[in-house]
Write a structure and sequence with these properties.
single chain; about 160 residues; alpha+beta; 3 domains; three-stranded antiparallel beta sheet; two-stranded parallel sheet; 5 strands; about 45% helix
């Protein structure tokens, strides 16, 4: 989430950013105190906030799951076996991201996601090129630079923890 916020800031987005997640424990879960803590200590200084899908509105998550199905059917299944190495996979992934967001017609929007975004704000097209990350590798980097205490990465003394 922090990578996304910094990416948007680098593109000149300076207004408040709202991130919406499911109610998983890593995002505060059922703990109002943890969500408040994350917002106060991590997101507010970055002019951002974290909210949860409203209770009883499970259809919100359906949009995420539907995009995962599209990724599976139009990217992973046809492309994965064609990749001879990680470098080629990353190249194909960034190309897919560009196509998905700027070229591929989305029937639910009646346009591309980038064109829909332009209805709300003027933003460069390179927003569709958010860096592809191997999340497992990011955890390995955290293991090198930050100590763990009780299953959490301690980023600064008693300031905040990243699960």
């Amino acid at each position: 989430m922090l990578s996304l916020i910094y990416f948007l800031r680098a593109l000149g987005i300076d207004h408040e950013i709202t991130l919406q997640t499911d109610n998983g424990e890593e995002f505060g879960g059922k703990s109002v105190d943890k969500l408040d803590y994350l917002n106060r200590m991590i997101f507010k200084p970055l002019n951002a906030k974290l909210i949860h899908i409203p209770k009883g509105r499970k259809e919100y998550n359906a949009f995420v799951e539907r995009s995962h199905q599209t990724d599976d059917n139009e990217f992973y299944i046809p492309q994965l076996e064609l990749c001879k190495d990680l470098k080629e996979f990353l190249f194909r992934a960034i190309r897919w991201q560009w196509v998905y967001n700027t070229i591929r017609f989305h029937s639910s929007l009646n346009m591309t996601p980038y064109k829909k975004l332009l209805e709300y704000c003027k933003i460069p097209k390179k927003i569709a090129l958010f860096p592809i990350m191997i999340l497992d590798e990011m955890v390995n980097i955290l293991d090198v630079f930050f100590p763990k205490k009780d299953g959490y990465y301690v980023l600064t003394k008693d300031l905040f923890f990243l699960t």
